[in-house]
Write a structure and sequence with these properties.
The structure is a single chain. The mean pLDDT is about 85. The longest helix is centred in the last third of the chain and has 33 residues. Helix 3 packs across helix 4. A hairpin with a 2-residue loop joins strand 1 and strand 2. The chain is mostly helical. A two-stranded antiparallel sheet has the order 1-2. It has 4 helices and 2 strands; from the N terminus they run H-H-E-E-H-H.
Length: about 140
């Protein structure tokens, strides 16, 4: 069954309805939760002033830890990627073999999962016999 192109106003209306539905769901959930936030206490979780000094609260400390973890993971991923690329390009059979084992063990399962889930979602949403789209290439 061919897909008909949407007119811009139809897409805009569909987006507005979806957004309104999401806002309604959130507001209804908040109403049924029956909990009222004490917003006056929130600034203390960000910053505190003690003896004229600004001290980071738990939320800012948590943000700092998260950013530190992200920075270290970027450095580690860059080093692993660089070493793998250099081993892959090296003239050593052992180096190329180690790089291949690492790539097959770490990178390939992610591709398999991506392939599996995109194929699964394609089969649920389509009734034609056309092959699934290959987004992962």
């Amino acid at each position: 069954m061919p897909v008909r192109p949407h007119k811009p106003w139809q897409s805009l209306c569909l987006f507005a309805l979806t957004l309104a539905g999401l806002v309604w769901l959130v507001l209804r959930g908040e109403e049924r939760l029956g909990y009222s936030w004490h917003w006056r206490q929130m600034p203390g979780y960000f910053l505190k002033i003690v003896d004229g000094q600004w001290i980071a609260g738990p939320l800012l400390q948590g943000l700092g830890v998260t950013l530190e973890i992200v920075a270290w993971s970027l450095v580690l991923a860059g080093m692993i990627g660089l070493v793998t690329a250099l081993l892959r390009l090296s003239g050593s059979r052992v180096g190329r073999g180690l790089a291949r084992v690492y790539l097959e063990a770490c990178a390939t399962p992610r591709s398999w999962c991506r392939s599996f889930f995109s194929t699964l979602s394609w089969r649920r949403s389509s009734t034609s016999a056309a092959p699934p789209p290959r987004y992962w290439r």
